[in-house]
What does this fold into?
Amino acid sequence: MRRLTSTVVVVAGDGAGDVVAGLDGLHNVRAIPRGDRAPAEVTELAGRSAATYVVHDADPLADVAAAWTAFFDGTGIVGGLEVAVEAALGDLRADRLTLPDYYLLLNPDGLSETWRHWWLGVLAGAAPVRVVPVPASAGAVAEELGRLAAGRWWPADLAAWLRDLPRVVPDRAGLPGGGVVVS
It folds into this structure.
């Protein structure tokens, strides 16, 4: 799994595409709104950029996040989370997708409880400074880019971390011990 030379930032949440588009033209920022592009196409464009920051809204873990929240909300299909995890791992290993350096999460207060647990528990628990809540505006995101702090990268054993997700209970996600419930 590769890491790009630019600092890659995924903007997530309602209105993310518009916020990313609003960053176009900033010095040292390559803004890539996903629009109709596949996430792999966005990753390819990001990989060719020489900008200091590449900002887009094509979350490489979007399907995993949706499957995890559906699993714990009781609306998912049996095996859906496991399938999403294996598909993401395959895309990451084949370098069709890359994990971002940071997620900037727009207006987390407006999210459902399970979605907040995904962003601020599961992801932030895995890499605490890599998930940053921000107001939903291009100006707030632009300002945050200059304040991003260094911190631990995503788990070294990404496969084990993702495959353990069915055991990470929402209201325990991000707590010491990883929130994993041992059965």
